[in-house]
Amino acid sequence: MAEPFAFNIAENVLETLTALVVQEISLACGVQSGFRKLREMLATVKPWILDAEEKQARNNQLQDWVQKLKDACYDAEDVLDEFEVESLRGQVLEQKCIGNKVCNFFSSSNPLVFRLKMAHKIKKITERFSEIADLRDRFHLVEKHDDTMHVVLSDRETHSFVQASDVIGRDIDKKNIVESLLQAPTGGEEENISVLTIVGIGGLGKTALAKLVFNDVNVAEFFQLKMWVCVSNETDLKRLLEKVIKVANGGDRDYGNMSLEKLQKGLRGCLNGKTYLLILDDVCWVDDKPWSKLKPLLMGGAKGSKILVTARSNLVASNMGTIHNLKALPEEESFSLFLKVAFRKGGKEQHPHLVQIGREIVKKCGGNPLAVKTLASLLYSTTSKHEWEKVRDNEMWKLMQDKNDLLPVLKLSYDQLPHYLKPCFVYCSVYPKDYRFASFELVQFWMAHGLLKTSNPDEDPEETGRRYLNELSSRYFFQDFETLGFIQHFKMHDLLHDLALLIAKNECSVVKSQGQDVGEGVRHLYFLDLDIPAESFSRYLDNCCHVRTFRFLYIKEGSRNDFFIQTFLSRFQRLRVLDLSESTFEVLPRGIGNLKHLRFLDLRGNRNIKKLPNSICKLQNLQTLILASCNGIEEFPKDMSQLIMLRALSITTNLTVLPENVVNRLKSLRHLAIGHCENLEHLPEGVRNLTQLRTLVIGMCKNLISLPHGLNCLTNLENLAILHCERLELEGKEDNSQEQHIAQGLRLRRLLLGGLPKLKTLPKWLLIQGSGSHTLSLEMLEIFGCLELASLPEVMQCLTALVELKIEYCPLLSERCRRKTGEDWPKIAHVPYIYLDGHEIGSNRYHKTEGDHRGNQSRSSTTTVISTNISLENDWKKEER
After folding, report:
1. What does the H/E/C string look like for 182-202?
2. Is Oxidoreductase found in the keyword set (predicted)?
3. Dist. CA 79–CA 83, nearest whole Å
């Protein structure tokens, strides 16, 4: 089932070659002619690649041919990337050195030597492609050209269907479980807590059912404390306790450095005397040893406390408590779910012949909601009878070993993806099961690997990535969406993660235990918090010279780990993505500046780092740099302006003033997040030079006094969040000179203001363009935690583009915005979707259709937290008060 994506890589190489040839740059020693020969060779092979990838599963020799082709394409991509690095280095030298030609000639990368070396590499790769191309005739391949270069999104909003499908057919199950949880304990019970386990095969909706129970009104009133913990494969007692105590305390504190003794005392203190409900979701233990260790530590709650578990296996569940077996959906309810997902409104009446085919497909799904949704979403975009019959009669039904084997069904949906979406899905296997993706993070990850393609030269890669994400979501490859601030958070179903791992088995490797083998061809490597003996380093590193993604979190400082990091940095010279987050370095490892292909560097949560080495500025290809929650940083590199390709930057610092050189001249920057800077008082005026900036997030800077002047220069700024800045005053001076100065060019689409105790009136400069005209661009406005904010300005009536308005924890303002009776209601009555303290009070003249997600999806900020950090995850949060 391996899927090496040779077509995608070949396409990337061809595009790069074409660009280099078109540039007509003067390249000595036959480099230009080598480019042309290589391009001609790839253009000859490319039409057969799609057919080869489809047929390889049934032919080992063909699979080997595709693998060789893919490896050659990867190597060609690396060589061409060196030309890009050299070009960027030249641009930096031109900025830095007045006598740039002399400086360049005597540099460590002499142009003549470089071109001689690269000409040799191009020649060798061209010869490899020639040998591979000569073998294609033996496989009787057919030319295929991909004609789906653009993502075609359906007009359906997926979120409401996700919510509806979560609850369909589970009313009786929910009723029985809620009754069991609310049942008073009998006097004869020996323990304070009882355990109920929902057991069922993957895809039946165990987690969805648990969510319904967790959010039930009666359950909320009965229990003093509710906690939700995803367990998955986690068996380490300490990490399990960290998860439970973190949700019990309702905060973001890092408990990783606490001893087991302190953790268990802390947990028992949280539970002491309280009636609690704990959900242990997706328990995948192979035996009951983890439970036997965890259970005694959960006994501190009041009598009547309950634990609700979801699991696939009866083996472990039988030792935990009472079992509630979740059965398959009845056929009629499955069919109802299928119709809801597969047809637009009124579609089933227009295509009755498809309805009958759909019923036959539903019968084969065996009442599994995930299978029903996946296939229905696959058919949503077509009304071709032939396409529906292909799904009904597909051979994958024969491959199902039993009714519990859903992978062939899911593989069918995967096979129907356009070629450019397949690697985007499969690369998600680099992340662990139940990982909470952030849309921004995933798009940056895809971009770092060159997966985002568009025929529109004016479209940013980030926008392309959002379109890719929307299409994968519409096909149910992702679920559990929450819109938090400017970004979405979501998860991947366990079975889909299993599918991604199965497809990517030759590309991706997740090392979970010592002694696990890592294949020679692995390109994406993830270590799961292992304590690896020094003598085992070579086992993992010797065969991994091609790695492009390396994720190793929670690395503790020490000579052994330092040696390990230095070793992999010297071996992994082709890295595109490096994630060393939540580690304890005081100094960033030497050699980081040699990773010339690196696009994505994540150091978040490294709280011990005091300074960044200037060598990091050698990473001219770097697109994303995450320094969020690196609280100890007091010194930044002096040559930050050399990061000329940097598009996303997230910063936490201990400084009172952020140096100008950190952001001044980062001309490519699209996203900037500055947060958790407790000492920061002023932002650099150089922010106004970031003319390409799309998103600016400023949060958790409690001592920030003012914003920089000149934000009017940010004509491309679309998203602005200013959050939890206690001393910040946003109002302009009495003469309004600041308002006029700061607002000349703002064209905001989304604005978040929260946790600003000094905010008494909503600043006009955020709502009005220069010269007194009213902006028509603002689409979303969210205000929370501004206790002194007493009214909205009259200009609100002119915000005709405003679609969504949310106000929470602003008592004075909420009172004035009451529907029809509030004094400010006339100013906002035209807004289609208004949420006041978690309740929708939108205007009656806007009718919401069944498929409109705005009125149906859960408003996450009223039940959990709101993300304000555009730079990944929710590092800065607003807890419900």
Report:
1. HCCCCCCCCCCEEEEEEECCC
2. no
3. 7
Are the beta carbons of 417 and 425 closer than 8 angstroms?
A: yes
Of residues 856, 849, 855, 847, the one with CA closest to residue 163? 856
Nearest to 666 by CA among 95, 170, 155, 175: 95
Contact between 592 and 617 under an 8 Å Cβ cutoff? The reply is no
**Alpha-carbon gap, residue 572 to 184, rounded angstroms:** 59
Give yes or no for a contact between 166 and 212, defined as CB atoms under 8 angstroms apart.
yes
Tell which phi-psi region holds residue 91, choosing left (phi > 0), alpha (psi between -120 and 50) or beta: alpha
- 640-651: pLDDT as tens digits: 989 999 999 999
CA angle 733, 738, 742 (to 5 degrees): 145
Tell me the per-residue pLDDT of 96-145, one tens digit each, with 9 for 90 and over.
664 444 454 444 456 777 777 888 888 888 888 888 888 887 887 777 66
Question: How many CB atoms are closer than 10 A to CB 262?
Answer: 13
Query: How far is Cα 333 from Cα 353, in angstroms, rounded to an integer?
Result: 20
598 token code pair: 């690196």
Residue with tokens 């460590």: 108
Which whole-number Å values give the CA distances from 553 to 439, 629, 745, in the listed order?
A: 20, 14, 42
> Which class for 310: exposed (0-12), middle (13-18), buried (19 or more C-beta within 10 A)?
buried
Q: Which two tokens stand for residue 7?
A: 């077509």
What is the CB neighbour count within 10 angstroms for residue 402?
A: 7
Q: Where are the beta strands (DSSP E) in 689-772?
A: 695-699, 719-723, 750-754
Total residues belonging to the chain? 881
Answer whether 723's CB lies under 8 Å from 846's CB.
Answer: no
Do 186 and 453 contact (CB within 8 A), yes or no?
A: no
Largest CA distance in the chain: 90
Distance, in Å, from the CA atom of 48 to the CA atom of 67, rounded to the nearest integer, reads: 14
Which SS3 state, helix, strand or coil, does residue 673 take?
strand
Lookup: tokens for 492: 């991947």
Q: What percent of the chain has pLDDT over 90?
A: 27
**Mean pLDDT, the chain, as a whole number?**
80
The pLDDT score that the predictor gives to residue 26 is: 45
pLDDT of residue 825: 95
Q: Report the distance separating Cα 283 and Cα 311, nearest Å.
A: 5
**Sign of the C-alpha dihedral computed for residues 16, 19, 22 and 24 taken in this order:** negative
In this structure, the number of other CB atoms found within 10 A of the CB of residue 451 comes to 22
